[in-house]
Write the structure tokens for this entry.
Amino acid sequence: MLSGEISLRVRYAETDRMGLLHHANYLVYFEQGRVELLRAQGRSYKDLEDQGFLLVLTKIEVRYRRPVYYDDVLTLRTIVERTTAVRIDHCYEVLRDGVLVAEGSSTLACVDREGNPQALPAFLRERP
């Protein structure tokens, strides 16, 4: 199963008035995880888009387990759970000091520039 980890530090601008990581930022973190996972394969979203492959988010889910605060250092684990001809399912684990603080999942679909479904590039369908 393809997976990767990145480290993130919660910035002040990402918190709410209570000093907690705002819930919407988890979605941004998940995107960072996907971008870095693709980069680890020697590719980028720009490469895909230049070739006419657009990956659009069709579903996303977050489950919050513990509060996260300004300046916390987090580990984000991104895992490719499943691929089909046109879809990629990821799951995510957000940890602080090895403790699960949030988890989530997302589905990306591959479309062309007109928004029509199209097959994923072969390298995204292949399992390492």
Q: What stands out?
A: Helices lie at 25-40, 45-50, 122-125. The two ends are 7 Å apart (CA to CA). Strands lie at 3-9, 54-64, 73-83, 87-96, 99-111. The mean pLDDT is 95.
